[in-house]
Target: Putative nucleic acid-binding protein
Amino acid sequence: MLQELLQGFSGPKAQAQIIERFAALPLIQPDREDHISAASLRNACRRAGVQIGTIDALLAHLCIRHDLTLLTTDKDFTHAALHCPLRVWPATA
Model:
């Protein structure tokens, strides 16, 4: 998530603010089992007709594993949540 935010903003001031604010949050690092489980999640979604990207499947799995709710505007996560225990809090535009 941090990387995606930093890629979406230009300028050193915005980058510094994002890095500073994210410093207060714990960093979750996936291990081998997370990647294996994310692949299974992606395959299950695909069998159900839901396309979810590799990194999105990993994010979804990490949220499930760590009992987190995903705040997103990406409808792919909402569709995936119909086929796995992912909790999604959709951001309103």
User: Anything to note?
Assistant: Residues 49 and 72 are 21 Å apart (CA to CA).
